Amino acid sequence: MCGIVGYVGSKQAAPVLLKGLATLEYRGYDSAGIAIWHGGQLEMAKAAGKLQVLRDLTAEGSKLPGTMGIGHTRWATHGEPTDVNAHPHLSRSGRFAVVHNGIIENYQQLKTRLQRHGYNFVSQTDTEVIAQLVEYYYKGDMLDTMIQLMNQLEGSYSLGILCVDEPERFYAVRKDSPLVVGLGQGENLIASDVAALLAYTQEVYYLDDREIVVLAADKVEIYDSSRDLVHKEPQHIDWDVSAAEKGGYEHFMFKEIMEQPESVRKTLSPRLQDGQIVLDDFHIDRERLEQFRKIYIVACGSSYHVAAVGKYILEQTTRIPVEIDIASEFRYRGPIIGPDTLMIVISQSGETADTIAAMREGRALGAHVLAIVNVLGSTIAREADDVLYTWAGPEIAVATTKAYSTQLAVLYLLALRFGQLLGTLPEAELAAAYRALEQLPELLEQALQKREHIQHMASQLYNKHSIFFIGRNVDYAVAMEGSLKLKEISYIHSEAYAGGELKHGTISLIEPGTLVVTLATCDRLVEKIKSNAEEVKARGAYLLAVAVEGDERLAKVADAVFYVPKTEALLQPSLTVIPLQLFAYYVASQKGCSIDQPKNLAKSVTVE
Ligand code: G6P
Q1: Does the pLDDT value for residue 516 go beyond 90?
Q2: 118 exposed, middle or buried (CB, 10 Å; 0-12, 13-18, 19+)?
Q3: Best probe residue, ligand 1, of 298, 605, 607, 608 (max atoms within 8 Å of C-beta)
Q4: I need a labelling partner for 208 at 20 to 30 A (CA). Which of 72, 276, 315, 526 fits?
Q5: Distance from residue 260's CA to the centre of ligand 1 (Å)
């Protein structure tokens, strides 16, 4: 959601900024702009719409000379996506340019105050207040100005700021919104995430809240809010630039679907050692685990759907009650948790605003917070008591696939390890699940090989207007993810229901030809879900089923069946989700949708 880049070095800045913004496109945006310091002035170009409009406007950046600048892709919050509301925003004299991610909660008060001092505003954004405030406070010392600015702003922000008096340096700061500093050779950068830096460097600084960065071509200095210099160790990022490129695939989403066996292998294999589950740097031993009376899993979007699977499997292996919650609900409902609660937060980005807030609430109430995160150095990774990384590599498509699969993989590790520590999981079951975990990447590969049939079915069914997904137990949890995937990228209305709930309302929506996707991979519940399938079939539904190989029970009722390899019941969701991801992808592709950047959606939701 919104993307920031900033550059200072010897190259022409505008093309570098445009390239960085292109890498950040996946975050979601509806306008874009850049500002460049050149010849004692700030020059700016910005436009509503896709980056191509800005590219054309600036002739790929060539029209804007200068070797230092800031750029932005905006996902509208305050004010429509227009040219004027696009970032950067200039102060009234044009001496300062600002790009901003986040939301300034007290912008209206600040704006009124500045208006009383004669400042006029041209946009409807909260960000313009920042540019004007900088000008208001500036008395020749940018560092002082930044500190005064921070003292005034309430809300979340990461900022890149140019000052006309400073030909060689620009400024950045963050609070509750992601920003990374890239350390190059004779050039330095900022970006909302590392993907935009990889073409220049793999050495980065992660910033803490309220740290101010002063970037010059040959030097980066970081100050705290008392103006003291902060010493930080650079971190090396393992991802290389190809990880954030399409590599011959038509869409990132498809590339990432196909990468799942490898991502899951990378996530699992270092943790499966000689029959033991090894979770490094983990502070939960048996004694601590026995103190937990409750497990709470909190997340948003697809990560929440992983939590939904997690509830079934963790309760089964630990016999500890597990509650799950959507982060935006959890944070405002006075959750009943305390030191006897293990709170698991799940987040690909580690920057989802609601999940961060929920985690902080949980910690404040004394819960032990364990985070499952993909992005190294992200806010959630840094603030949680324990972190287990999903080694999925950068995920670019807005609709998550490989992050979902690796999150599930980490949950299995936890479930098995906890079950072992507590003695609640019989040895034989543990051993069987361990073996199945070792085989999971291979089985994922097999599941992906069946894609031709799925593509064919998608070509027959892509023009449906409403699709229902049903399942029981973990199949219900996976159905939620299948339904979300489809609606996110194909814009077809779709909903997921627990099979047993059908008769309590949804069945009234079934008409001749309505597509119902029935997940039937939970062995002990196949007969039950088959009855539900028959009920909708009797009302004319077109029935697509997902079943495990060798189980023909659904074939008798369904119009078509997607078969997935069989594994231990605990791990089956990892394979069940594959045809659903592929089906969503192929349907969206048939419809000609913008698969990697669906309308209105953002990869990382960094505001409430
Ligand atoms: C957005 C993304 C989803 C993701 C959700 C939570 O909605 O489009 O794919 O599941 O945010 O993001 P997180 O980074 O916290 O997992």
Answers
A1: yes
A2: exposed
A3: 605
A4: 72
A5: 17
| The ligand 1 atom nearest the CA atom of 601 | 8
Same domain, 435 and 515: no
Whether ligand 1 lies within 6 angstroms of the CB of 348 is answered as yes
Same domain, 282 and 423: yes
Indicate whether 351 belongs to any domain: yes
User: Do 114 and 155 have their domain in common?
Assistant: yes
Give the mean model confidence (pLDDT) for residues 525-531: 96
**Please, are residues 282 and 432 in contact by the beta-carbon 8 Å criterion?**
no
Distance 117 CA to ligand 1 centre (A): 42
Cα(366) to ligand 1 centroid in Å equals 26
Q: Compute the average pLDDT of residues 554-559.
A: 95
Please name the residues in contact with 340: beta carbons below 8 A apart, sequence gap of 6 or more: 291, 292, 293, 294
Q: How confident is the model at residue 539 (pLDDT cuts 50, 70, 90)?
A: very high
Residues 4 and 190: beta-carbon distance below 8 Å: yes
Hey, which residues does 296 pair with through a beta bridge? 323, 343
**Would you say the CB of residue 202 lies under 6 angstroms from ligand 1?**
no
Atom 15, ligand 1: residue with shortest CA distance? 347
Quote the CA–CA distance of 155 and 176 in Å, as a whole number.
Answer: 8
Residue 406 domain boundaries: 252-439
Place of tokens 């698969």: 595
